[in-house]
């Protein structure tokens, strides 16, 4: 934080004089652990605040340490140890943002929204990237997704289901070009296996329910038509048929492999070579399956 200058000592400050200017929602389990830890061994690291000189002051704005501050409040404490720094409002927001980047258990969706807020206040992509340690590509991509209201895509980026570059491609593609964007990501090696399947489900959810996570709640009176119900049934049936086809293919391959191993095991010359090379062990379940085949 370039504009902040730490004070020389820790001050005990009344909780009711501290304002959380950039509040975060907290994971209840994590908050409980923080509170219990402070209750048992005390506060290992003081919170950081900046002083506001006002009438009947001083008052303070929280720079970082919301979880610790709220834990002290939950424990019935009146004051909390704090490091007081000199910083303007923008520096405080940057410090809060950087802390969220560094924290493993944070609400990353809030972090993405903060990037959008900084962009709206006139910060360039390069400035945000430099101050937060994020890449310029990531910052620019997040800003584009927020501008387009792509909450579903933002959540997928936050959970690392899809890369930011692929999310931006999907957001900027027409409906009929979305599958082409997925295909391109597959060919470039950006989406493979489970991530590709997850991306396809995301695209389908986005098509059905919209870009916003709250789109379904925003239309509580919407009724499911017979046509939509039939389409959903047909799609679900097709997915199940596809699962059955894949299961049958896997079963056929396993039977082929088992039969090949069984025949190879009858070749005494080959088995002697395998034993000499100490390659005669195999997984217990495969050995049991070969044994049951032989007895049959």
UniProtKB/TrEMBL annotation:
Record-level GO BP terms: chromosome segregation
Residues covered by the ParB-like N-terminal domain: 11-101
A single Gene Ontology CC term: chromosome
InterPro entries: Chromosome_partition/occlusion, ParB/Sulfiredoxin_sf, ParB_N, Plasmid_RepB
One Pfam family recorded for the sequence: ParB_N
Protein name: Chromosome partitioning protein, ParB family
Source organism phylogeny: Bacteria, Pseudomonadati, Pseudomonadota, Alphaproteobacteria, Sphingomonadales
């Amino acid at each position: 934080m370039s504009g902040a200058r730490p004070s020389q000592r820790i001050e005990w400050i009344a909780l009711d004089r501290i304002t959380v200017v950039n509040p975060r929602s907290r994971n209840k389990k994590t908050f409980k652990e923080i509170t219990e830890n402070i209750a048992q061994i005390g506060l290992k690291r003081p919170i950081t605040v900046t002083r506001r000189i006002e009438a009947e002051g001083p008052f303070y704005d929280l720079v970082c340490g919301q979880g610790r501050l709220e834990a002290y409040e939950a424990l019935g404490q009146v004051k909390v140890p704090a490091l007081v720094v000199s910083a303007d409002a923008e520096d405080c927001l940057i410090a809060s943002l950087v802390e969220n980047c560094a924290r493993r258990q944070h609400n990353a969706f809030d972090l993405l929204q903060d990037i959008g807020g900084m962009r709206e206040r006139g910060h360039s992509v390069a400035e945000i990237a430099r101050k937060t340690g994020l890449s310029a590509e990531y910052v620019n991509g997040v800003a584009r997704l927020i501008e387009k209201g792509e909450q579903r895509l933002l959540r997928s980026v936050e959970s690392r289901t899809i890369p930011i570059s692929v999310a931006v491609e999907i957001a900027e593609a027409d409906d009929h070009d979305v599958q082409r964007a997925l295909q391109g990501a597959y060919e470039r090696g950006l989406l493979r296996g489970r991530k590709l399947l997850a991306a396809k489900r995301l695209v389908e959810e986005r098509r059905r329910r919209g870009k916003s996570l709250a789109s379904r709640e925003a239309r509580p009176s919407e009724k499911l038509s017979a046509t939509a119900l039939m389409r959903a049934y047909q799609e679900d049936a097709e997915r199940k048929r596809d699962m059955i086809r894949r299961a049958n293919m896997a079963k056929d391959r396993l039977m082929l492999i088992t039969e090949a191993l069984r025949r190879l095991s009858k070749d005494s010359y080959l088995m002697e070579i395998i034993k000499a090379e100490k390659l005669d062990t195999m997984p217990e379940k495969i050995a049991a399956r070969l044994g049951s085949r032989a007895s049959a």
